[in-house]
Amino acid sequence: MNPNEENCIFCKIAKKEIPSEIINEDELFMTFVDIKPINKGHLLVIPKKHSRNISEMIDPELSKYLAFVKESAEQMKTSLGCDGYNIGMNNEPAAGQIIFHSHFHIIPRYKDDGLTSWPDKEYEEGELKKYAEKIRKK
Ligand code: 5GP
Ligand code: ZN
Protein backbone atom coordinates (compact mmCIF):
# COMPACT_ATOMS: atom_id res chain seq x y z
CA MET A 1 0.00 0.00 0.00
CA ASN A 2 1.12 3.54 -0.78
CA PRO A 3 2.46 4.92 2.57
CA ASN A 4 0.26 8.00 2.06
CA GLU A 5 -2.80 5.77 2.03
CA GLU A 6 -2.06 3.99 5.29
CA ASN A 7 -3.08 6.85 7.56
CA CYS A 8 -5.43 8.55 5.16
CA ILE A 9 -8.70 9.37 6.84
CA PHE A 10 -10.60 9.59 3.53
CA CYS A 11 -9.29 6.15 2.45
CA LYS A 12 -10.68 4.86 5.74
CA ILE A 13 -14.00 6.60 5.05
CA ALA A 14 -14.04 5.12 1.52
CA LYS A 15 -13.48 1.62 2.97
CA LYS A 16 -16.08 2.28 5.71
CA GLU A 17 -13.45 1.62 8.39
CA ILE A 18 -14.55 4.88 10.00
CA PRO A 19 -18.10 6.16 9.87
CA SER A 20 -19.44 8.99 7.73
CA GLU A 21 -22.87 10.10 6.59
CA ILE A 22 -22.82 8.76 3.03
CA ILE A 23 -25.14 10.43 0.54
CA ASN A 24 -24.34 8.28 -2.49
CA GLU A 25 -21.60 6.08 -3.89
CA ASP A 26 -20.69 3.83 -6.77
CA GLU A 27 -17.63 1.66 -7.41
CA LEU A 28 -15.38 4.70 -8.01
CA PHE A 29 -16.70 7.60 -5.92
CA MET A 30 -18.39 8.46 -2.64
CA THR A 31 -20.21 11.57 -1.41
CA PHE A 32 -20.52 12.22 2.33
CA VAL A 33 -21.29 15.08 4.71
CA ASP A 34 -18.43 17.37 5.82
CA ILE A 35 -18.19 17.44 9.64
CA LYS A 36 -17.35 21.18 9.72
CA PRO A 37 -19.70 22.76 7.19
CA ILE A 38 -19.29 26.17 5.63
CA ASN A 39 -23.09 25.99 5.33
CA LYS A 40 -25.07 23.06 6.75
CA GLY A 41 -25.34 20.23 4.23
CA HIS A 42 -21.81 20.89 2.87
CA LEU A 43 -20.73 17.71 1.04
CA LEU A 44 -17.40 16.15 0.10
CA VAL A 45 -16.96 13.95 -2.97
CA ILE A 46 -13.97 11.60 -3.08
CA PRO A 47 -12.57 9.06 -5.49
CA LYS A 48 -12.34 5.74 -3.59
CA LYS A 49 -8.84 5.20 -4.98
CA HIS A 50 -6.25 7.30 -3.18
CA SER A 51 -4.69 10.32 -4.90
CA ARG A 52 -3.18 13.35 -3.18
CA ASN A 53 -5.22 15.84 -5.19
CA ILE A 54 -6.32 16.47 -8.77
CA SER A 55 -2.69 16.59 -9.98
CA GLU A 56 -2.39 12.86 -9.29
CA MET A 57 -5.73 11.87 -10.82
CA ILE A 58 -5.83 10.27 -14.25
CA ASP A 59 -8.40 9.02 -16.72
CA PRO A 60 -10.73 7.19 -16.84
CA GLU A 61 -11.61 8.14 -13.23
CA LEU A 62 -10.89 11.81 -13.63
CA SER A 63 -13.29 12.36 -16.51
CA LYS A 64 -16.08 10.52 -14.66
CA TYR A 65 -15.49 12.46 -11.45
CA LEU A 66 -17.22 15.69 -12.46
CA ALA A 67 -20.39 13.91 -13.57
CA PHE A 68 -20.60 12.26 -10.14
CA VAL A 69 -19.98 15.60 -8.39
CA LYS A 70 -22.73 17.23 -10.45
CA GLU A 71 -25.20 14.47 -9.60
CA SER A 72 -24.59 14.92 -5.85
CA ALA A 73 -24.75 18.71 -6.15
CA GLU A 74 -28.07 18.67 -7.99
CA GLN A 75 -29.48 16.13 -5.52
CA MET A 76 -28.38 18.39 -2.65
CA LYS A 77 -29.90 21.50 -4.25
CA THR A 78 -33.24 19.80 -4.84
CA SER A 79 -33.36 18.26 -1.35
CA LEU A 80 -32.25 21.33 0.61
CA GLY A 81 -33.94 23.89 -1.61
CA CYS A 82 -30.83 26.06 -1.54
CA ASP A 83 -30.51 28.90 -4.06
CA GLY A 84 -27.20 27.70 -5.51
CA TYR A 85 -23.97 25.97 -4.64
CA ASN A 86 -20.21 26.30 -4.89
CA ILE A 87 -18.05 23.44 -6.14
CA GLY A 88 -14.36 23.65 -5.34
CA MET A 89 -11.19 21.74 -4.62
CA ASN A 90 -8.21 22.89 -2.57
CA ASN A 91 -4.97 21.62 -4.11
CA GLU A 92 -1.87 21.83 -1.87
CA PRO A 93 -1.50 23.65 1.47
CA ALA A 94 -1.11 27.08 -0.13
CA ALA A 95 -4.64 26.62 -1.47
CA GLY A 96 -6.03 25.46 1.87
CA GLN A 97 -5.76 21.68 1.45
CA ILE A 98 -5.52 19.93 4.83
CA ILE A 99 -6.64 16.39 3.91
CA PHE A 100 -4.35 14.93 1.26
CA HIS A 101 -6.87 12.72 -0.53
CA SER A 102 -8.64 14.33 -3.50
CA HIS A 103 -12.01 15.82 -2.64
CA PHE A 104 -14.43 18.27 -4.14
CA HIS A 105 -16.42 20.45 -1.75
CA ILE A 106 -20.07 21.10 -2.59
CA ILE A 107 -21.33 24.03 -0.51
CA PRO A 108 -25.01 24.93 -0.45
CA ARG A 109 -25.60 28.67 -0.87
CA TYR A 110 -28.52 30.90 0.02
CA LYS A 111 -29.31 34.45 -1.03
CA ASP A 112 -27.84 36.74 1.62
CA ASP A 113 -26.15 33.88 3.53
CA GLY A 114 -23.39 36.30 4.45
CA LEU A 115 -20.53 34.33 2.91
CA THR A 116 -18.27 36.75 1.13
CA SER A 117 -16.25 35.79 -1.92
CA TRP A 118 -12.51 36.26 -2.39
CA PRO A 119 -11.34 39.85 -2.88
CA ASP A 120 -10.57 41.14 -6.38
CA LYS A 121 -7.07 42.24 -7.32
CA GLU A 122 -6.09 44.72 -10.02
CA TYR A 123 -3.67 43.99 -12.89
CA GLU A 124 -1.10 46.63 -13.78
CA GLU A 125 -1.09 47.81 -17.42
CA GLY A 126 -0.17 44.83 -19.68
CA GLU A 127 0.13 42.40 -16.77
CA LEU A 128 -3.00 40.34 -17.61
CA LYS A 129 -1.55 39.60 -21.07
CA LYS A 130 1.78 38.61 -19.50
CA TYR A 131 0.04 36.15 -17.17
CA ALA A 132 -1.88 34.66 -20.10
CA GLU A 133 1.37 34.22 -22.06
CA LYS A 134 3.07 32.59 -19.09
CA ILE A 135 0.23 30.14 -18.46
CA ARG A 136 -0.64 29.33 -22.10
CA LYS A 137 0.85 26.09 -23.43
CA LYS A 138 3.73 26.66 -25.84
P1 5GP B 1 -9.56 20.69 2.72
O1 5GP B 1 -9.19 21.94 3.48
O2 5GP B 1 -8.48 19.64 2.76
O3 5GP B 1 -10.01 21.00 1.32
O4 5GP B 1 -10.86 20.15 3.43
C1 5GP B 1 -10.93 19.03 4.24
C2 5GP B 1 -12.37 18.93 4.71
O5 5GP B 1 -12.55 17.68 5.32
C3 5GP B 1 -12.75 19.98 5.77
O6 5GP B 1 -13.85 20.74 5.30
C4 5GP B 1 -13.09 19.16 7.00
O7 5GP B 1 -14.17 19.68 7.74
C5 5GP B 1 -13.41 17.79 6.42
N1 5GP B 1 -13.11 16.68 7.30
C6 5GP B 1 -11.94 16.46 7.97
N2 5GP B 1 -11.98 15.31 8.66
C7 5GP B 1 -13.20 14.77 8.43
C8 5GP B 1 -13.85 13.57 8.87
O8 5GP B 1 -13.30 12.76 9.63
N3 5GP B 1 -15.10 13.34 8.43
C9 5GP B 1 -15.76 14.21 7.59
N4 5GP B 1 -16.99 13.89 7.22
N5 5GP B 1 -15.17 15.35 7.15
C10 5GP B 1 -13.92 15.63 7.56
ZN1 ZN C 1 -6.60 8.39 0.79
Write up this protein.
The chain has about 140 residues and is of the alpha+beta class. It has a single domain, classed as HIT-like (HIT family, subunit A), CATH 3.30.428.10. It contains four helices and five strands.
Index terms:
138 residues, alpha+beta, HIT family, subunit A, five-stranded antiparallel beta sheet, 4 helices, globular, binds guanosine-5'-monophosphate, binds zinc ion
- Count of discrete alpha- or pi-helical segments spanning 4 or more residues: 4
Helix-strand pattern = HHEEEHEEH
* N-to-C CA distance: 37 Å
Radius of gyration: 17 Å
| Mean residue pLDDT | 95
Low-confidence segments, given as residue ranges, are none
Short structural description:
This protein has 138 residues and is an alpha+beta fold.
Q: Could you give the topology of this structure?
A:
Blueprint: H1 3-6, H2 9-14, E1 22-25, E2 29-33, E3 43-47, H3 61-80, E4 84-88, E5 104-109, H4 127-135
Antiparallel strand pairs: 1-2, 2-3, 3-5, 4-5
The protein binds guanosine-5'-monophosphate (5GP) and zinc ion.
Zinc ion binds at residues 5, 8, 10-11, 50, 101.
